[in-house]
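Self-study notes.
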Amino acid sequence: MKRTISLTINGKPHTDEVEPRLLLIHYLRDVLGLTGPHIGCETSICGACTVLLGGRTVKSCTMFAVQADGRDLTTIEGIAADGKLDPIQEAFWNEHGLQCGFCTPGMVLSARQLLADNPNPTEQEIRHGLEGNLCRCTGYQHIVNAVKTAAAGKSAV
């Protein structure tokens, strides 16, 4: 039996009928067409599906869409404003913190929460804060540099 859910996603209200077993990642991608959160491992290991739910990171492959009912959710599509990249996105671009881009949405949103919780993290704190997100391309140093740059407010070229 389907359930009606209502969420605010990237500042816009959405109401849909969904199966109770529909994962949040599949709701975002298949129902709403938001392809920023990626489907990687579907076991919560890779972090490619990371979104912000109520301002906190969650891996959208680990929860049902009905669990997000009534909440505010932000995907990578919702952090740029007026055609201008979010400072963390800009730092990832400038510091070459992305290669294939598959992990980038989850990394950026995890970095966003990390910097909201700790605006001046050490390299060790950055690495710890991002350890729930896997990257197969960059070797992480450029990602760490991007978070340092964003923390220092030096992301603008």
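Second protein, same conventions, sequence then structure:
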Amino acid sequence: MKDKDIHKIIRILQKEARTWDIPAVGLVAERTGDPFRVLISCILSLRTKDRTTEKANDRLFSLVLTPEEIARLPVKKIEKAIFPVGFYRTKAKTIKRLSKTLISKYNSKIPDDLDELLKLKGVGRKTANLVITLGYGKPGICVDTHVNRITNRWGYVKTRNPLETEMALREKLPKKYWIDINNLLVLYGQNLCKPISPLCSRCRLFKYCERVGVGKSR
């Protein structure tokens, strides 16, 4: 695809996104605007379907809303609240440990700086960027499997992994799209541009896409 086509592509995605359900983490951000709940929701969402994450969010946040409240909650209660998210036992421990760290080192406030967030054990670049963008509304580029796959499939970047994709997008993606790119491509990847056999015949971006690596499609 031509670099200038990104503006047309984003406009199309923004229209399409209105017809699809908001991802679980985005829903938390939209409803609460709370960076802490965005952070916890991000952790719960890893390797977990959105519907499961959404229900786990509701159960956990009906019990606790602050780092102090989570720090006081027994790990077993956290496990029960978030089950059956993927790796729920590990995530329960991570959430409690993170809450204690936030209390002791950050006065219970979630850092709004990427490098500072990455110092927190259990927080990777994907989660840190989502907290920055969805929790604070600051520019950041969250690259998950959808963003990595789709931007390479378009031919917009030519990278080998999410970190390389993030760095490439920071160089060429107009900054006004940074916050929205993850939400748009998660929805697009879940509904049309699937990993295997994407729905190319229904895709309004077909004429812009180089379909790199696409064999079978529908």
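Instructor comment on the second fold: Residues 88-106 form the longest helix (19 residues).
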